[in-house]
Amino acid sequence: MSLLPEWAPNLHPLVLHFPIALLFVAAAFDAVGLFSGDRGGWRKSANWLYALGAVTAVITWYSGTLAADSVFLPTEANALLTEHADLGLWTAWFFGGYAVIRMGINATKLGAGGMARIGFFVIGLAGLGLITVTATHGAELVYRYGVGVEAVETAPSEPLVQAEAGEDGIAVSPAGWSWAPARAAAWKTSAIWVEGSAESLTSSLVDGGDRGDVFQLEVTEPTLFVLPGQIDRLQVDLALDPTDFDGSVLVAHHVQEDGSYGFTSLANDVIRLGRTENSDLLVQATEAMAGSGWRDIRVVVDGTHFRSYVDTQLLVHGHGAAFEPGQVGLRLNGTGVVRLAGMQAVDLGVVAGGSSDDSSDSGEEMDMPMDSEADDHDHEEPNG
Ligand code: HEM
Hints:
Elements: H1 12-15, H2 17-35, H3 41-70, H4 78-108, H5 114-143, E1 170-173, E2 176-179, E3 192-195, E4 201-207, E5 213-219, E6 223-231, E7 234-241, E8 245-255, E9 262-267, E10 270-277, E11 280-288, E12 295-302, E13 305-310, E14 313-319, E15 326-347, H6 348-351, H7 363-366, E16 371-372, E17 378-380
Antiparallel strand pairs: 1-2, 2-15, 3-6, 4-5, 5-15, 6-15, 7-12, 7-15, 8-9, 8-15, 9-10, 10-11, 11-17, 12-13, 13-14, 14-16
The structure holds protoporphyrin IX containing FE.
Protoporphyrin IX containing FE binds next to helix 1, helix 2, helix 3, helix 4 and helix 5.
């Protein structure tokens, strides 16, 4: 049985931070000892830190040799790995020798004079230069060439909601629901209208070009509809084109029976994140949004963390009191046409293999007023 976590490519990334941290702290202790005129404590501590740093550098070197045998490299990265491996070997030798000499001097009291101490300090700094170059090469292997890492999937290889869609185009499973264009308006009978009614919009299927058949929703008055199912820690994905819509499109989540909800809204090249409070919309973060046409929107609301992405770019990010589990839907606040290629809402607790009840919320944060990275609080009327 392997003791390595299943996501780790090998032992190397788990151990390599030890020599880097220990050796830098060792040099800092040495510097304090040197410049403060201290004759003992700081320098002795530095010796031990250098010794520990050297031992972990040797372990790191060895783990690196095993790592190199366990990964497949893109052609361009081969030369870089060779350099990194050579530098790693020199680093291990350098600090191994340096630590032995320092411990020897400490034991024999030889060479402990002022000039010798400055000389040792400078040699230690040169070693830090060596380990920095080694580590930078290693980081380039990972961050430039992706060695040992798995690419982030922007689209899951398997559908998250693994269930057959009904005639209404809606598939429901414990992981959440997905809604794809199937028949023009069959979905309306499954939707729950929180504001307005099924007559507030006309739904038809049209050719969406690359997007295939898409819904065309012609809106005549503000409406908010949700699909059934309570979701707590959620991710909502949808593809929509609001070009011909005059107003704002809100992805409404955690919709409660009293009509309150959280939202991410898109209107006039602006994306907002917020929630309803006492029938006001409290806007928590606002960002400009470039471009037009079809948008792939992702909204993640996990406990006290709220993130909204457009075309895989994180545009708004905020924190605030966690929501009660609720339903997910769309609020169309304006008039005109919104095209929708599909939508899904998944429960992150279920998709991640845990329980949707074990939210990351802490009671401490539950009562906190909302705060945001954008530090941008506006109050608006619901239909404003
Ligand atoms: C003291 C010696 C060494 C240090 C300080 C060091 C440091 C690093 C660092 C900082 C990374 C990037 C990790 C990340 O950002 O996640 C890395 C990656 C890597 N290093 Fe080293 N390294 C050392 C020795 C070696 C040796 C000797 C080899 C091969 C013979 C090696 C092979 C690799 C490989 C293959 C990776 C890519 C990630 C992986 O598969 O683990 N390293 N190293």
